[in-house]
């Protein structure tokens, strides 16, 4: 019983963000918006990326959006540009956004050099495809 309680406490500490719903709005079988709703027990960063069909370089060909989300309920709605129809998406919740002064490993330093920051402490990740035209 003690092991079970310890595991539950660790899970509650390690996953302070709860995505209650990720949904899409469609018009004529075409996804036009992605909606993400949930509740945060602490401040975190949400990152959303869109990729066109047949993408060769996700970093330069994709659209990468992010923002800080404060404690409490959150609701994000992002319009999907037509160039991403038939493509894919990623949604991630991150515990920390690091700058160069915070980096201690090569992976962090690489991404800070590429885009000016590095996300750490992945709490949630979902990926999928936009089907239908």
Structure characteristics:
single chain; 133 residues; four-stranded antiparallel beta sheet; three-stranded antiparallel beta sheet; 3 helices; 7 strands
The count of β-strands is 7
The strand order across the widest sheet is 4-3-6-7
How many domains make up the coordinates?
1
Compressed to H and E, one letter per element, the order equals HEEEHEEEHE
By CATH reckoning, the class would read: Mainly Beta
The percent range for helix content is 10-25%
Briefly note the structural class of the backbone. Answer: alpha+beta
Gap between N and C termini: 52 Å
Could you tell me the CATH topology label.
Immunoglobulin-like
Radius of gyration: 17 Å
Biggest pleated sheet: 4 strands, antiparallel
Mean pLDDT metric: 83
Shape designation: flat
Describe this structure in words.
- The structure is a single chain.
- The protein is α+β, with helices and mostly antiparallel strands and 133 residues long.
- It has one domain: Sandwich (Immunoglobulin-like).
- The protein has three helices and seven strands; from the N terminus they run αβββαβββαβ.
- Strands 4-3-6-7 form a four-stranded antiparallel sheet. The protein has a three-stranded antiparallel sheet with strand order 1-2-5, with no helix packed on it.
- The longest helix has 13 residues, at 2-14.
- It is flat, with a radius of gyration of 17 Å.
- The termini are far apart.
- The model is unreliable at 1-14 (pLDDT under 50).
């Amino acid at each position: 019983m003690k092991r079970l309680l310890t595991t539950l406490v660790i899970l509650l500490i390690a996953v302070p963000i709860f995505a209650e719903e990720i949904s899409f709005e469609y018009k004529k079988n075409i996804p036009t918006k992605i909606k993400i709703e949930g509740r945060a027990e602490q401040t975190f960063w949400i990152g959303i990326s869109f990729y066109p069909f047949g993408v060769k370089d996700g970093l330069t060909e994709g659209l990468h959006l992010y923002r800080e989300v404060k404690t409490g309920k959150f609701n994000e709605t992002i319009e999907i540009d037509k160039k991403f129809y038939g493509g894919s998406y990623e949604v991630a919740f991150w515990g920390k956004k690091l700058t160069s002064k915070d980096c201690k490993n090569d992976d962090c330093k690489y991404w800070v050099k590429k885009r000016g920051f590095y996300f750490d402490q992945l709490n949630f990740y979902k990926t999928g495809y936009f089907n239908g035209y």
